[in-house]
Amino acid sequence: MSNEREPGPALVQSVDRALSILEILAHRRAAGVTEIGKELGVHKSTAFRLLAALENRGFVEQAQDRGTYRLGLGIVRLAGSVAAQLDVSRQGHAACEQLAAELGETVNIAILDSDRAVNVSQSRGAASVASHDWIGKQTPLHATSSGKVLLAFAPAAVRESVLGQPLERFTVATVTGAAELAAELDRARSTGWAFTAEEYEVGLNAIAAPIRGADGSVVAALSVSGPAYRLIRAAFPEVAKQVLAAADEVSNRMGWVG
């Protein structure tokens, strides 16, 4: 039986009111505490506490004339994350389909979500009809090729956080030592690609390369995965060339000209 407790009515009501504030500010562009309180049907002090919590997270900010609030950059950050996810899926579709057809294996695009990788697009080659459906699945950064690429190019704080925690073992081949993983991340940054050999699932190998946005930052990873008996380690360097080419094509479509 789970020990997790359902949020109480008061907490749910506060969340609903906070979201209503965001909708009010999206509609009005700016509003004062009194106006927001009236529209919510709550006392001014309640509206102020909700605004303070939202301001602390960057979702609202006070305009130059103090006391008037507007949406903050935190909203832009969230919207940008969704837009990037949708855009990279759309821009990467053709390249992924072509690579999947060339290799006959499964091709995925994944993005970084906190300390996990999330697959947002998948194309299947002729030989991969029985493979997993990875879309929407969260996978560990240290045990997947996409995760290693995303971690290699992630901000230093993200890398340090992952390397500073115990690394879960999924198979006998999973890299669980921080020093060994750090060396692999350095290698990925140097060569531009990463691999896993039966590290997340027994019998599954994968190779990934970074997808860059217009500013050159890594926004996603493109990977190919297949059975270890087909996607053999000796073939990794040659397959990596194709993965890199496909990832670069998507990067170019995202606006990167490096």
From TrEMBL:
<dbReference type="GO" id="GO:0003700">
    <property type="term" value="F:DNA-binding transcription factor activity"/>
</dbReference>
<dbReference type="Pfam" id="PF09339">
    <property type="entry name" value="HTH_IclR"/>
</dbReference>
<dbReference type="InterPro" id="IPR050707">
    <property type="entry name" value="HTH_MetabolicPath_Reg"/>
</dbReference>
<protein>
    <recommendedName>
        <fullName>Glycerol operon regulatory protein</fullName>
    </recommendedName>
</protein>
<dbReference type="InterPro" id="IPR029016">
    <property type="entry name" value="GAF-like_dom_sf"/>
</dbReference>
<dbReference type="InterPro" id="IPR036388">
    <property type="entry name" value="WH-like_DNA-bd_sf"/>
</dbReference>
<dbReference type="GO" id="GO:0003677">
    <property type="term" value="F:DNA binding"/>
</dbReference>
<comment type="function">
    <text>May be an activator protein for the gylABX operon.</text>
</comment>
<dbReference type="InterPro" id="IPR014757">
    <property type="entry name" value="Tscrpt_reg_IclR_C"/>
</dbReference>
<dbReference type="Pfam" id="PF01614">
    <property type="entry name" value="IclR_C"/>
</dbReference>
<dbReference type="InterPro" id="IPR005471">
    <property type="entry name" value="Tscrpt_reg_IclR_N"/>
</dbReference>
<dbReference type="InterPro" id="IPR036390">
    <property type="entry name" value="WH_DNA-bd_sf"/>
</dbReference>
<keyword id="KW-0805">Transcription regulation</keyword>
<feature type="domain" description="HTH iclR-type">
    <location>
        <begin position="12"/>
        <end position="73"/>
    </location>
</feature>
<keyword id="KW-0804">Transcription</keyword>
<feature type="domain" description="IclR-ED">
    <location>
        <begin position="74"/>
        <end position="256"/>
    </location>
</feature>
<keyword id="KW-0238">DNA-binding</keyword>
<dbReference type="GO" id="GO:0006071">
    <property type="term" value="P:glycerol metabolic process"/>
</dbReference>
<dbReference type="GO" id="GO:0045892">
    <property type="term" value="P:negative regulation of DNA-templated transcription"/>
</dbReference>
<keyword id="KW-0319">Glycerol metabolism</keyword>
